[in-house]
Amino acid sequence: MSRQTKEVKMAVAPGVIMLLLLLAMIVGGMAWFFWGIARDNALGLVGLLVTTLGIIGLPGLFIVQPNQAVVATLFGRYVGSQRDNGWYWTNPFTSRKRLSLRIRNFNSERLKVNDADGNPIEIAAVVVWRIVDSAKAVFDVEDYSQFVAIQSETALRHLASRYPYDNSPEFELSLRGNADEVAAALQVELEGRLTHAGVEVLEARLTHLAYAPEIAGAMLQRQQANAIIAARQKIVEGAVGMVQMALLQLSAQDIVQLDEERKAQMVSNLLVVLTSERGTQPVVNAGSLY
């Protein structure tokens, strides 16, 4: 494994002070040079040298904008990074590269993958990230933006294969039912993958989740069936409770005495009335109870 680069602070000097010093060297050196030439004095060459050094030093001035970093190398060797915004001067022979430290968003494409149950689904996510180590971002990966995109999609595919789309007895979590837990798991996996590029993941969220078109219809029918079954179970539980309450109150208040056969008939009639989807038509018995 290649050795990772660690960010260090660049050696810099205040830009204003260095500009005044370099201008003084240029102007003073030129004056010294012409004074020496006028007197046929070899010391005029020293003035020319001072002027040349002042001109050579000017490219060492650079500006760092807010939320920006400047990474410097000297003859192929990393010498440091400057994050503090302002006007600075450094070795003019260094090569300097600027990169943004602002927060960025990556919106993934809709990926077609299989969930933990083997069902094809479509999934997409948004990743909020920023650079926290400029040296790693520049030197340890080829292109940090592309690295974030590829690793984010890879992590999203892996995440989708770990959880089922909907609730399943074999798994505690699901993609649809546990959005916060799934987002936290995605962020943890991304942080492990992107730390090599000096990138910090601030947030990761799913933006799209659906069954693939070829099974969407069948899965919708299954969801509707599950909902109907759950509703029926709730209705039956309520109906049984109401029937039990009716029998207890009739017995407690001594309104009517029912044998077991009549109780069974009453229970059957009440359950039909309470669980029927349509309104029932009662038949009034104007004669005796039996």
From TrEMBL:
<keyword id="KW-1133">Transmembrane helix</keyword>
<keyword id="KW-0645">Protease</keyword>
<dbReference type="GO" id="GO:0008233">
    <property type="term" value="F:peptidase activity"/>
</dbReference>
<dbReference type="Pfam" id="PF01145">
    <property type="entry name" value="Band_7"/>
</dbReference>
<feature type="domain" description="Band 7">
    <location>
        <begin position="59"/>
        <end position="223"/>
    </location>
</feature>
<keyword id="KW-0378">Hydrolase</keyword>
<keyword id="KW-0472">Membrane</keyword>
<keyword id="KW-0812">Transmembrane</keyword>
<feature type="transmembrane region" description="Helical">
    <location>
        <begin position="41"/>
        <end position="64"/>
    </location>
</feature>
<dbReference type="InterPro" id="IPR036013">
    <property type="entry name" value="Band_7/SPFH_dom_sf"/>
</dbReference>
<dbReference type="InterPro" id="IPR001107">
    <property type="entry name" value="Band_7"/>
</dbReference>
<dbReference type="GO" id="GO:0006508">
    <property type="term" value="P:proteolysis"/>
</dbReference>
<protein>
    <submittedName>
        <fullName>Regulator of protease activity HflC (Stomatin/prohibitin superfamily)</fullName>
    </submittedName>
</protein>
<feature type="transmembrane region" description="Helical">
    <location>
        <begin position="12"/>
        <end position="35"/>
    </location>
</feature>
